[in-house]
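User: Structure tokens for this complex, please. No commentary.
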Amino acid sequence: MSDLRERLRELADVVASQSRTPGPEAALRRARRRRLQLAGGTAVLLAIVLLAVTVGTDRLAGPAPLAPSATTRPARATTTTTPPTVSIMPDPGEVRLPAGSPPGPTGEQMVHDVASVVAECQGGAPGEPIALVAWGKEHHRYWLIAAKPPGPGEDWLCWANGLFEGGGAGTVGSNGNMPLTPLGAGGSSNIRVGDQYWGQIVGTVTKRATRVRVLFDLGIPPLELRPIQAGDRYPVNFYAGFYRLPAKDKRPATWQVVRVVAYDEAGRKVAECQAKAGPGHSC
Amino acid sequence: MAGNGSFEEFYSGAVGRLVGQLFPVTGDLHEAEEVVQEAFTRAAARWPRLRDYDVPEAWVRRVAMNLAADRARGLRRQARAMRKLRQPAEVPGASVEALALAEALRTLPIRQRQVLVLHYLVDLPVDQVAHTLRMPEGTVKSLLSRGRQMLASKLGEAEEVLDPK
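Assistant:
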């Protein structure tokens, strides 16, 4: 009578010889299709960035630009809805994890997905790796912010924000094709957790700010957020937060954010942006 | 080790072996192929980084094992597991003893199947099994012990026959 090891091997060998998998091309095709879905999701956020800059240049008052006046900007947007010429996401290379990372292989996958989107952005200091600046878990969702320090003369910042379910499904927003402003915001709505709905706001803010206040309509209480310290290599800090939404049938299909204001240590307003009506969520 | 080889080479060299390893866990050839294919899809998206791993196959195996566990839980929720359990394992060419083992394995909890396969088929030591499945070593030892006992009981054999020292 053979032992367990031998019987398992026999079984595995027979199965291996009979297995009919579709081949490596199928796996590559599926990976490419998912990448396209990801690019489609980020295209929406690209529209947000475009709107943010349009609004920001008109409405932001007070603070001087965060970076020197533009020299050269990327020749193309960081995301596209057209099929890419490569079949897999770009390799982000080493990803620094100063704040750790979500746990397990799924967490690694989230980091890789967000960093890969940053890697697509043209720019960044040569030789400096992408970093996962911050991450957190709220309302059964993981949020991540990854960025690449800007290169000399760049007035934009390559960064991406991801929002994932525990199993790893999610979306990644790409940012970095426009000059930085003192305060930028984007976000997601209709994040459903059980019977409740949540919205997320995420953006960049001048380093002079020590507090970010988000104002909403529909009677949603204001949100007070502390900027996430990105470190010396980044010209701005980040912020992120969640807010509870009324049930879907009790609110219009618009962004609930009305205004975002940044304050310094002394309580002085240092930046402000007004949400703009129209497609996408931007400020 | 994949070194700087292509994804296609890595896939071709590992896919059969991995399906063979996942079959005793899923108890279903189609399920085993599905989870392995999905794991390879995820590997394809990360290949520029994965190819530098010492053993990229271990990464794919771990993902496939997790997917198999997720699916098993989903099946249980949908009350489809019982229907599947009644279906005999279909592996033409396997010996009667191997088929009996496959049938017996299908009655064990998924975690027990995983540790038995990783330890006895993949030949991983207990600490590596624990690392792969992210569980304490004590839990692995306990699952191995109970798994052997249950298999011996199902197969009507002494435990020592299954695990001769």
